[in-house]
Amino acid sequence: MPEEQVAAEGSNTREVDVLREVAVRVATRAAEHVRRRRPEVFGGDSSEGDGAVHSKSTPTDPVTVVDTETERVLREMLAQLRPEDAILGEEEGSEDDSLDGVRWVLDPIDGTVNFMYGIPAYAVSVAVQIDGVSVAGAVIDVARELVYSAALGRGATVERADGTQEQLHCSGVTDVSMTLLATGFGYGSGRRAVQGAIISELLPQVRDIRRIGSAALDLCMVASGVVDAHFEHGLSPWDWAAGALIAAEAGAMIRLPAANSTSAQGAVTVATAPGIADAFVAVLRSAGALDPIPG
Question: Within 10 A of 24 (CB to CB), how many other CB atoms are there?
Answer without folding.
Answer: 21
